[in-house]
Amino acid sequence: MTARLPRAAVSTAPATLPPPLPGLDPAWSRLVTVPGTPSDSSGGPARPARTWHLLDTAASLTALGVEPVGTLLCVHGNPTWSYLWRSVVAQSLAVAAAGGPAWRVVAVDQLGMGFSERTGVDHRLADRVAELGRLTDELGLTGPVVTLGHDWGGVVSLGWAVDHPDLVVAVTTCNTAVHQPADVPIPAPLRLALRPQLLGRATVVTPAFIETTLAIAHPKLDRATADAYRAPYRGAARRGAVGGFVADIPVDSAHPSAAELDRIATGVAALRVPALLLWGPRDPVFLERYLDDLAARLPQADVHRFEGAGHLLPDDADVAGTVFDWLGDHLPHGTVPTQAGPGLPAGPDLRTDTERTNVTERTDVTERTDVAEPTGDADGPAHRPLWTHLTELRDSDEPALVEMAAPGGTRTITWRLLTRRIDEVAAGLLDLGVRHGDRVSLLVTPGADLTAALYACVRIGAVVVVADAGLGLGGLTRAVRGARPDWIIGALPGLAAARALGWPGRRIATVALPAPARRALRVEHTLAAVARRGAVRLAAGSALPDAPAADAPAAVLFTSGSTGPAKGVVYTHGQLGAVRDALAGQYDVGVGTGLVAGFAPFALLGPALGARSVAPDMDVTAPRTLTARAVADAVVAADATVVFLSPAALANVVATAAALTDDDRRALGRVRLFLSAGAPVSAALLTAATELMPNASAHTPYGMTEGLLMTDVDLDGVRAAGTSGSEGICVGRPAASVQVRIAPLDDDGRATGALTETPDVTGEIVVVAPHVRDHYDRLWRTDRASRLGVSDPRGHRTGDVGHLDASGQLWVEGRMQHVVTTPGSVVTPVGPEQRIERVDGIGRVGIAGIGPAGTQQVVVVVETVPAVRRPGLADPDLAAAVRVAAGVPVAAVLVVPVLPTDIRHNSKVDRARLSRWASSVLAGGRMTRP
Asked: AMP-dependent synthetase/ligase domain: which residues (predicted)?
């Protein structure tokens, strides 16, 4: 039974055209009357004529002289109106004017909403779906049609799609839902609005419901835009349908619209057309579970979560650009392409100069060849599972893992014990109901528990989610929620955070907990109990399943978040195996090698390499806590000959070298190879580390979460680079089976040029390798951008900017997003930073661009030696020296006690944060620390 609305909810008013409003061209607006119908012979009710306001680009396309390839039918929700789609309308015309596919956009105001007719009657969900159908009949839509809906307009648009399968070629949605689980309450804001004593007052009598919707935009709407959304709803008499929409939410199976919602949900699951699901995770009403449900019903859907965006997604994020990019990929001519796959979008020709000469030009973008095939194939018949070496060593009593910081002292785990534990945990997880494809979030610090849990999950085909504490609590929360795990295996800190912050997933603890703590943390099992269940199952003769296919997802690894929200990177089993093989081949690390892993990825990959791995005594979330003595102790404990440390950890090892004893130094003398990666490593730091490990070859690999090893350079190479005069940081030559090319920058700092290997051409670094990630998790737009112009599925646009030299070595000059576009040139940051760091009295340096693109000014922010106590303008002499050294025009020089860096590596200077800070303080804001 629904709550009763006040009399104002049944007011009537004719449809009108909207007044002049920002972003809304009056030429788009029209009124359309759907004629009434008399009662039919079966006694069906008569239908009065209804007049709709809608935005329609048909006339604008005619003025452009183009024929539409199809229609994009846009349906708003509550309490918005067609104004929500103004950017989609504008973008459609811009694409058509530029020669792209011309999509007619029809964006309706639902009856009682916007500037459509106030009918004075209730409109249930089934009514709205049918009314939209009568309108499209009146418009004469014949297809192809793509639907785009938001909020409850998403449900209506999908209902229309279900009812018009002959016209629909694709469906797209923004923050909507088609199913409400019976065992889960509707979201709290809606429960509040639906209270009988509040419904009418909050939605009709006052504009509270509208104001709340506008207030949760991210970023906040400017006043003119907010007023435009308010325009059709001024006065209670015009807000009746706002309350009616809320009252029509099916809260349970007895609700009058529940049956229609169920019908639509069932019909959506039967749709076989391409689908795009766009989502704002900061929506307090349409929660992530509704996206999960839609994605399950539309398994063919592409999904993109706009991190940081909320409910008003078309205002919060670039929905318009994303939709038309997607349409260009999937329906370039208004119909689904007959060839396999969607092909590549039209765009810049990114082939190499040689390929452009040797390959006949084609107009069909799906036939372009952009990057030659590399050697090796992650999915070929030679694929070996990640745990191959574990199987080979399962009867060995040699050490596999050494934990230096285990409770009670150093703990050593043999290969026999480790493989048995993995098998038992794997069998126990199966017994609990963990299945192939389930996602398991691992909130455990590196060590035996994490290793056993990770390899057990991978062994049974579950997908491990690895988001380390180095992301910070906020980043970790976004990562875990976005990865939507079915299970969480966690130590106490991770479980406490999961409970406090509402992370999804059933809980398994790595430690035994008292019953009250288990209840409070919602822990169902312990890892030890899971292993015991598995042991019983294996003893009874149950076998573990066959190895998952090479192309099955195996892991979601999260980027550091140093250049924006951390992204989930999906690896298949074949690609993880290729990562293992690439590292083993490059560094001769394998069975019998002792490895000190002060960097989380190597701690996890050690067993896959067959290496004897030791985790040194350190806080893995704070690399600078690692000391020289801790490294020496770890070398002794594992008889290690290989050491892998992050640059921040390596810097602290060098800084604490005075505490080393003679025995420590002799131990470090056994090391034959040490590696440092994750951020640039200077020749001075590598040299200092070599003095501690005099028999070791020093290497610094270049890679990223999307591809852990792309190039490599040793200390001699770094030293030689320092005398070459080239800009940037030399990261060496490509590893085996890796190809590196450059997409040159244009005058606007965009990487639009054809891929090239020509020396000294600066642009975005593009890599191709068998061990590159499969895709980004629920980030269709990000994934598309990382592949644009790269036809090989193993290709990746890194987002780094750099160049190749005449000898084929790669030089990194910064990040694409940190390129500064000044009036006279495009400035990449690393070269000027390096030159400035040579000035006496200066430590680390960060270059920031302030101002509009194309007219940006360079600001230099430096740490001084000794450090200043508070931020401010540099003194005139220091500023003058910086300007001389920079080699580019500098608008201002600022000094800070410490430059901001990323959390995971403590090394990468956050230039984007510096830019925001410098813009603020130079505009007269407070001189706070960045």
From this structure: 395-772
- Residue type at position 797: R
DSSP 8-state class, residue 202: I
Query: 100: which DSSP letter?
Result: S
Residue 193 has a pLDDT of: 82
DSSP annotation of 720 reads H
State whether residue 224 is helix, strand or coil.
Answer: helix
CA 800 to chain centre: 17
Query: Is pLDDT of 302 > 70?
Result: yes
- Residue appearing with tokens 């969480």: 488
* Tokens of residue 154, six digits: 């998403």
Max CA separation in the chain (angstroms): 103
Cα 340–Cα 342–Cα 345 angle in degrees, nearest 5: 140
Amino acid at site 312: L
At residue 764, what is the residue type? E
Cis amide leading into 516 (omega within 30):
no
Distances (CA, A) of 672 to 199, 284, 385, 390, 589: 73, 55, 28, 24, 11
Q: Which two tokens stand for residue 567?
A: 């992204």
CA atoms of 413 and 397, how far apart (whole Å): 9
CB-facing half-sphere around the CA of 837: CA atoms within 13 A? 14
Residues 71 and 578: their CA atoms lie apart, in Å, by 44
271-283 per-position pLDDT tens digit:
999 999 999 999 9
Cα-Cα-Cα-Cα dihedral sign, residues 917, 922, 925, 929: positive
State residue 64 phi and psi, 5-degree precision. Answer: -80, -15
Q: At which residue do the structure tokens 């923050």 appear?
A: 175
Whole-prediction pTM value?
A: 0.89
Q: Is the dihedral of CA 583, 588, 593, 597 positive or negative?
A: negative
Spatial distance between the Cα atoms of 150 and 84, rounded to a whole number of angstroms? 9
CA distance 538 to 393: 19
765-788 tens-digit pLDDT: 999 999 999 999 999 999 999 998
Is the distance from CB of 491 to CB of 443 less than 8 angstroms? yes
Average per-residue pLDDT in the chain? 89
pLDDT per residue over 418-460, tens digit each?
A: 999 999 999 999 999 999 999 999 988 888 899 999 999 999 9
By the 8 A CB rule, do 243 and 8 touch?
no
End-to-end CA distance of the chain: give it in Å, rounded: 55
Look up residue 9 and give its two tokens.
């909810």
Neighbours of 847 (CB within 10 A): 26
| Separation CA 521–CA 310 (nearest Å) | 28
Strands (DSSP E) along 344-410, which ranges?
A: 399-403
Q: Which residues are 55's β-sheet partners?
A: 29, 107
Whole-angstrom distance, CA of residue 745 vs CA of residue 805: 16
Q: Residue 928's CB: how many other CB atoms inside 10 A?
A: 10
pLDDT of residue 5: 62
pLDDT at 474: 77
pLDDT for 364 equals: 28
Provide the token pair at 286.
Answer: 């349409």
For tokens 């008003």, what's the residue?
Answer: 312
Rounded Cα distance between 124 and 132, Å, is 12
Distance CA 804, CA 721 (A): 12
Region 833-838: mean pLDDT is: 92
**Weakest-pLDDT range from 221-225, 680-684, 710-714, 870-874:** 680-684
β-partners of residue 349 are none
Answer yes or no: is pLDDT of 170 > 80.
yes
Nearest to 313 by CA among 175, 153, 106: 175
- DSSP letter for each residue of 275-305: EEEEE-TT-SSS-HHHHHHHHHH-TT-EEEE
Q: Please report the pLDDT score of residue 562 as a whole number.
A: 63
CB 703 within 8 A of CB 727: no
Q: Which two tokens stand for residue 519?
A: 């209840």
Q: Is 33 helix (H, G, I), strand (E, B) or coil?
A: strand
Place of tokens 């993109």: 304
Tokens in use for 579? 């990562």
